[in-house]
Specification:
Elements: H1 5-14, H2 26-39, H3 47-68, H4 71-78, H5 83-133
Helix pairs in contact: 2-3, 3-5
GO biological process, one term: shoot system development
InterPro entries: BPS1_pln
Pfam families: BPS1
């Protein structure tokens, strides 16, 4: 049997192993952010704990945003056969955006309450200083 370059090329292509495609580096990063967010103590309300949770939520949000802007993801979104999956993904993303907005509002209100408390403490201190000075 004569071996020609074309025949060798065809044989080498048919014998290639089909390996599963590797996921994008953002996928394990997304999983890591999600695990860190879920692993946090849900009952802790210390400022450092809340700050850490918000930081993890922000990281997850940014990772999802990056995943949604990948060319492959955009291609999937353009295919009509994946409409249900796309709707579920976008609903989840909107839920994440809502959670971020709620967290932002919570932090803003907490900041306002802290500023009001500091103002009241200053007024009380000034009042006490005024009474002691008289």
């Amino acid at each position: 049997m004569i071996s020609t370059p074309l025949r060798s090329k065809i044989l080498s292509q048919t014998r290639s192993a089909s390996l599963p495609s590797r996921s994008h580096p953002l996928v394990p990063q997304f999983t890591d952010h999600l695990h860190r967010l879920r692993a946090g103590d849900a009952t802790s309300s210390s400022l450092s704990s809340i700050s850490k949770k918000l930081h993890n939520l922000d990281d997850l949000y940014n990772c999802v945003d990056d995943l949604l802007h990948l060319p492959h993801t955009q291609q999937v979104f353009t295919r009509e056969c994946h409409e249900k999956w796309v709707e579920e993904t976008l609903d989840g993303y909107l839920g994440l955006v809502d959670a971020c907005a709620t967290a932002k509002d919570f932090i803003f209100r907490a900041k306002e309450y802290l500023l009001d408390l500091l103002s009241a403490l200053r007024r009380r201190r000034d009042s006490d200083d005024h009474l002691c000075g008289s």
